[in-house]
Specification:
It holds the Pfam family PilZ. The protein is an alpha+beta fold. About 15% of the residues lie in helices and about 30% in strands. The protein is globular, with a radius of gyration of 13 Å.
Length: about 110
């Protein structure tokens, strides 16, 4: 049995959310800055607090992107978490907040 690792992320503002969100994943995903080592495919549990909100969203997912510490260029260390099947509501909530901004997104923390 695989143990899920727990993470917590508070997104302070909309530009940060826009850079962290991964809309190219079918269920949505988010970049989580961390120096902790994770494996691709590893299950994670995330408490995500969105800008202007006090209650975090509880999200389960799996690691689909890894930027290790010491990664080249301007990339920060962290992981991309692909939301699980039951977390379409997280994707929908984020995309509602980012309505009209996804097509003119600044450089992201991943691609």
């Amino acid at each position: 049995m695989t143990v899920q690792k727990a993470l917590s992320l508070t997104i302070p503002d909309m530009p940060t959310l826009l850079s962290a969100y991964m809309p190219f994943l079918d269920r949505g995903g988010i970049f989580v800055p961390t120096k902790t080592l994770y494996r691709l495919g590893q299950q994670v549990y995330l408490l995500l607090t969105l800008p202007g909100e006090s209650e975090p969203l509880a999200i389960s997912g799996h690691v689909v992107w890894v930027s290790p510490e010491g990664v080249s260029g301007q990339r920060m260390p962290g992981i991309g978490v692909h939301f699980s099947q039951q977390d379409y509501s997280a994707r929908d909530r984020i995309e509602t907040l980012l309505a009209g901004q996804l097509d003119k997104a600044p450089p992201s923390f991943t691609l």
